[in-house]
Amino acid sequence: MILIDGKKAAAELRAELKEEVAELKSKHNKVPGLTVILIGDLTPSQIYVRNKEKSANEVGLKSEVIKYSDSVEEKTVLEKIQELNSDETVSGILVQLPLPKHIDKQKVIEAIDPSKDVDGFHPMNVGNLSSGYESSIPCTPLGCYLLIKKIEPNLSGKKAVVVGRSNLNGKPMTQLLLKENCTVTITHSKTKDLKAECLEADIIVAAVGIPELVRGDWVKKDAIVIDVGINKTDNGIVGDVHFDEVSKNAKALTPVPGGVGPMTIACLLKNTIDCFKRSQI
Ligand code: GUN
């Protein structure tokens, strides 16, 4: 079984991006900039944002974090986004989710200029991705896609089962696999016989938020299994895949942690650089 090393893949991607930033700097005399807006003091969000900032600095991006308290007015955030939209030194804008209840997530996402939407959450980018046009691609599915391609460069005709239908992961993951000519089945918590669906798959992407849902006898020999889950349990953090069982069957499997997570942040840096490059044409 191949244990897919997301940490190593992410470090390799960051090294490539660092070189690209240096080239862009010498060509344009400026570097891509990423601005993250963090609202409130949720610990996981703070940790993510700190990691994002650290990685951005490591590859040579200009990085800024704007922090607001939980009680910030929606209007203040929307005005700040407008200001960042017209700031030429800002290539990418990310508003860390989740947001406090009094702030309308959809309004915030739609306020971001689609050409600076490094999350790929703006309806314009969602539509472009599903139409097969150029777009920002959500970082987690993009990271999963790059890991799958490392194991299997030719995905044409493969059967892929995506478990989970969220806007963040499941739906964009489906689009990426379709673009590669996979036959894709989207499943979710209400799917009748999830085990039978998974048993058909050459590739399984589990992004449903249910601890250790995908069991050993759900997985065909030689399947590639990508685990997007990060679930807090009494036994610590576990994924959506039962690691010990599935590792006995699968051809390749991502661990949690150390699989998809590190790739998500590296892909955010990639998206920032791609937004910068498109803005320089
Ligand atoms: N919170 C957890 N994951 C994400 C993500 O990919 N993007 C944003 N903006 N917030 C998140």
What does this structure look like?
The protein has 281 residues and is α/β, with parallel strands linked by helices. The protein has 2 domains: 29-113, Rossmann fold (3-Layer(aba) Sandwich), CATH 3.40.50.10860; 139-261, NAD(P)-binding Rossmann-like Domain (Rossmann fold, 3-Layer(aba) Sandwich), CATH 3.40.50.720. It contains 10 helices and 11 strands. The strands form 3 sheets. Strands 1-11-8-7-5-6 form a 6-stranded parallel sheet. The protein is globular, with a radius of gyration of 19 Å. The structure holds guanine. The site of guanine has 8 residues, from strand 4 and helix 6.
Features:
Rossmann fold, 43% helix, 2 domains, single chain, globular, 10 helices, alpha/beta, 6-stranded parallel sheet, 16% strand, 281 residues, binds guanine
The succession of helices and strands, N to C, reads EHEHEHEHHHEHEHEEEEHEH
Low-confidence stretches: none
Mean pLDDT: 97
Largest sheet: 6 strands, parallel
In the CATH hierarchy, what is the superfamily of the largest domain? NAD(P)-binding Rossmann-like Domain
Radius of gyration: 19 Å
CATH class type of the largest domain: Alpha Beta
